[in-house]
Specification:
Length: 437
């Protein structure tokens, strides 16, 4: 009697569990020989089982797993809409692009309008502003939080300002409530880049819930992973529909893949100069993209989301261990400080060499890297100095002196959940040796 497909599937998934336990056994830590990464994926049987389970359906685009993740992720934040996309960078592109939609009427952002942002950070917070023909207006960062200096908002404001777009740097939070009030008083849009800050809180509220739109990333270095992936969050149903349109080729139709008549009037629309009754699935209201994710990636995310509370706890614990262990180096290093009234879900542990310290950043990180401890600088540093932006149009609200300091003297080390007490203590010992030699 032939074996049923359900039995075969169950057998396959059982073998996957066995494979995980054999292939991904933890290796003992050997100081000086084992790598101490700045970040990485942390996973178990469930992620691989979900990945294989979803692949057996051979549904190669977004489907039921993606819808399940979107519902759960939106629920985690207490928001109405979570729209998966193929990266955090694409999430930022979709968030800015959505604000240029003609469906927003007089609130639409137009080419030449200004968006206030920070100069020190990751390029893909800045790039969508330029890619949409908008003008970034840079404010400096504050030290030792490395977020936007909000005291400069008024100086950045002009009659062309239409939005504020800030990232929560390395999981530390800026005062999103203050920015929300600033934006509301002036009729501006507010976007939170939470790609490094999933699980961070301000005044007890999750960041990502203050902005009109928020973005997250699921790259392997981030708080949860799908390999590649990102998400746009919003409580505004109109914005949610617009983001979905830009993500899905720019079409006006909001059917999920495989669905055909969600609006119940597929052949009854008349939009633009199209003939009445033209198939709504092929009517386009935006100049969009195809930035969807696959169901296989979303299936991994479903398992990862279950781990998120534990990941956040581990990141905070590792931060506290590093902070306590490095206190006696404060004559050489500026240690990070969380924002007031916040509970960061730290992405990394930033360290700035004091201006008159007898050691350079380059010398220190070379010593750490030689001990197999991975380091990173704060992404692009002062982005106005990057070759990519030579000749681009932007405005600087104030001198970017602290962004230059960050570019020249800051680095960070990891504290992700894959780092245990033994590895954290090794980092502390290594930083002492490297800094005092």
């Amino acid at each position: 009697m032939p074996t049923s497909k359900e039995t075969l599937r169950a057998n396959i998934l059982d073998l996957v569990r066995q494979y995980h336990d054999e292939a991904f056994k933890p290796e003992p830590f050997e100081p000086g020989r084992s790598e101490v990464p700045y970040s990485g994926r942390v996973f178990g049987q469930e992620e691989i089982v979900n990945l294989v389970d979803s692949s057996l359906d051979f549904w190669l685009t977004a489907g039921t797993w993606a819808e399940r993740f979107e519902r759960s992720f939106a629920s985690f934040f207490g928001l109405r809409h979570a729209l998966l996309t193929n990266s955090g960078s694409s999430a930022n592109l979709l968030a800015i692009s959505a604000l240029t939609s003609p469906k927003l009427g007089h609130k639409r952002i137009n080419p030449g309008d200004e968006v206030i942002t920070t100069a020190a950070g990751f390029p893909t917070t800045l790039n969508p502003i330029l890619q949409n023909g908008l003008t970034p207006v840079f404010v400096d960062v504050e030290i030792p939080g490395y977020n936007a200096d909000l005291s400069q908002l008024e100086r950045a404001l002009s009659d062309k300002t239409r939005a504020v777009f800030f990232a929560h740097t390395l999981g530390n939070v800026f005062d999103a409530q203050k920015v929300r009030e600033f934006a509301d008083e002036r009729g501006l849009w507010f976007i939170e880049d939470c790609c490094d800050a999933v699980g961070s809180r301000l005044h007890g509220k999750l960041v990502g819930t203050f902005g009109d739109l928020a973005t997250t990333s699921f790259y392997p270095a981030h708080h949860i992973t799908m390999g590649e992936g990102g998400c746009v969050l919003t409580n505004n149903s109109k914005l949610g529909k617009i983001v979905k349109s830009y993500r899905d080729w720019g079409r006006d139709c909001w059917c999920s893949p495989g669905a055909n008549n969600t609006c119940k009037k597929r052949f009854d629309w008349q939009l633009g100069e199209m003939p009445r009754g033209y198939d709504h699935k092929y009517t386009y209201s935006h100049i969009g993209y195809n930035l969807k994710i696959t169901d296989m990636q979303a299936a991994i995310g479903v398992a990862q989301l279950e781990r998120l509370p534990g990941f956040v706890t581990a990141r905070r614990k590792n931060f506290d261990m590093l902070k306590e262990g490095l206190k006696d180096l404060e004559d050489l290093l500026i240690l990070p400080e969380p924002a007031a009234n916040s509970e960061p879900s730290w992405f990394g542990f930033p360290l700035m060499i004091r201006e008159k310290a007898p050691i350079s950043r380059e010398r220190l990180i070379r010593k750490l890297e030689a001990r197999k401890i991975a380091t990173r600088v704060l992404f692009g540093g002062n982005l106005t100095r990057q070759p990519a932006y030579a000749g681009t149009r932007y405005r600087v609200a104030v001198d970017l002196d602290r962004s230059d300091e960050v570019m020249n003297r800051l680095f960070w080390v990891g504290l992700y959940p894959g780092l245990d007490k033994q590895r954290i203590e090794y980092m502390i010992d290594s930083l002492h040796q490297a800094a005092r030699e």
